[in-house]
Design goal:
Purple Acid Phosphatase, chain A, domain 2, about 270 residues, alpha/beta
Length: about 270
């Protein structure tokens, strides 16, 4: 089973460059063309947040039309630059949320060799992660249903510290998430947000952040690090369930990357 994880499109929808530098519409098209050309195709695609750069409805319409071009089933979750309300209306078919947890964008995908669980970590209008009590209860219940089945758990914000000070913000409710995951070694936690591929172990489970489709954070392991990006080669992660294990491959999307930068993350807001 092949599960592709895309993340961080940052589409604006107003014709402007994201953060004044990145042509994310062009990058999105490049990503779509790459995915359509893959053989074999992934079985499922998960987009782990920041589909839009500022919750623009035009951006979500571009996302919808673009994702509809892809052959595998595609599912999405929100990042801090997204707007839940618009995602639930404009991208409803890509986020099958049940009424018991709405408006949080949380859901599971069953009937596959690997179980997929998606949960929402955004605090609308905030940059940092939030693990709200309704989501805590929902996630604990869902993981308890199949404690031994291989599970890919997707969210936007990583709970671990990266060493890049500006990205290591407080994560509200992170202690509860840690307490839950310690009981489920069958889980692999897969995140976006960091715009870099990182692998670590947190709360006893393998935890990764995926390379981004748009803009790679400059590796600056200092208190001021994590607030600039370079125009590097875009990427994604392919989670491959094979021979009873999950291998997570960091993959590149061929492009004419300029590697210009570092550029500041400036001129964008998290939508309320």
């Amino acid at each position: 089973m092949r599960v592709m994880q895309l993340s961080d499109f940052h589409l604006r929808g107003d014709g402007e460059l994201s953060f004044g530098v990145a042509d994310t519409v062009k990058g999105f098209r490049l990503c779509l063309d790459h995915v359509k050309g893959l053989d074999p195709q992934p079985d499922i695609i998960i987009v782990s947040g920041d589909l839009a750069d500022n919750g623009n409805p035009v951006a979500y319409e571009m996302v919808r039309k673009g994702l509809e071009e892809l052959s595998p089933p595609v599912y999405v979750l929100p990042g801090n630059h997204d707007k839940r309300e618009l995602m639930l209306t404009m991208l409803k078919g890509f986020c099958p949320v049940k009424e018991d947890i709405a408006p949080y964008i949380c859901y599971t995908l069953e009937d596959n060799p690997v179980r997929i669980v998606v949960f929402d970590t955004i605090g609308q209008g905030k940059h940092s992660g939030y693990f709200d009590p309704p989501v805590q209860a929902w996630l604990e219940k869902q993981l308890a249903l199949y404690p031994d089945k291989p599970t890919l758990l997707f969210t936007h914000h990583p709970p671990f510290t990266t060493g890049m000070g500006m990205m290591d913000e407080p994560f509200e409710g992170v202690e509860k998430l840690e307490a839950i995951l310690k009981n489920y070694p069958n889980v692999r936690l897969c995140c976006g947000h960091i715009h870099r591929g990182i692998v670590t172990k947190w709360a006893g489970v393998t935890t990764i952040t995926t390379p981004p489709v748009s803009m790679t954070i400059d590796l600056d392991l200092s208190p001021e690090g994590g607030d600039t990006f370079v125009m590097a080669t875009p990427g994604y992660t392919l989670h491959h369930y094979f021979d009873g294990q999950i291998n997570s491959h960091f993959c590149l999307i061929p492009s004419q990357a300029t590697f210009s930068g570092p550029h500041p993350f400036a001129g964008s807001e998290n939508p309320h």
